[in-house]
Amino acid sequence: MKVDKIVFATGNKDKVKEIQMILADLGAEVVSMKEAGISVDIEENGTTYEENALIKARAVAAHTDAIVMADDSGLEIDYLNKEPGVMSARYMGEDTSYRIKNANLMGRLEGVEDEKRTARFVCAIAAVLPSGKEFCVRGTIEGRIGYEEKGENGFGYDPIFYVPEFGKTTAELSEEEKNQVSHRGKALEKMKEILKDYEDTDC
Ligand code: ITT
Predict the structure, then answer these.
(1) pTM greater than 0.90 (yes/no)
(2) Residues 164, 171, 193, CA angle at the centre, nearest 5°?
(3) What's the 88 CA to ligand 1 centre distance in angstroms?
(4) Which of these, 1, 44, 52, 141, could form a disulfide with 72 (CB 3.0-4.6 Å)?
(5) Which residues have any ligand 1 atom within 6 Å of their CB?
(6) Is 65 assigned a catalytic role?
(7) Considering the domain boundaries, does residue 202 fall inside one?
(8) Which residue of the set 41, 71, 72, 200 is catalytic?
């Protein structure tokens, strides 16, 4: 299908920036819900990334005829039983700085050797089409938790997420590099493929 406009159901400006770059080749207008003038309180009470992504996309889709997408993502640290996981944004409180959250997570891994510091970023992207048809896809990137914050790019947990193939954290990658290999980049590429081959109908 030809995609003209996408409203993204997120309040996270860093995500919006990445999403707009990743979707640029669609030639569609990609706006945040705020830019679309939609303000809704969304309770993310799902237990999986997919559930939460669909909750956000459905809530905003109720207010527009455009295609709506949502991103639910997080960091899973194997040694911490996949914490902070779906709670990544809320870990230690939504308003706590990432300097503190990152220091806390590295502290919980003190003395833990390299091989056991495995982690991944996970991203579920949900789409709700004007007909009500829904899709949900997932992308991941594997890495390890570092020993100190490194890099100024990206956001959130990027400065402690070390990607062995690059020998860098995702905060040290350029925007283009991160988008090519990231959980968000991979999930959105899958969604692009799905929409390319799909014809939406109201019937
Ligand atoms: P919305 O729900 O409004 O989209 P949010 O920031 O609350 O915004 P999530 O509930 O999906 O989003 O939480 C995702 C959190 O996971 C995010 O706030 C970061 O802490 C972390 N995260 C996700 N993707 C990341 C990335 O690419 N780099 C660093 N941290 C990331």
Answers:
(1) yes
(2) 80
(3) 7
(4) 52
(5) 10-12, 15, 44, 71-75, 88-89, 121, 154-158, 182, 184
(6) no
(7) no
(8) 72
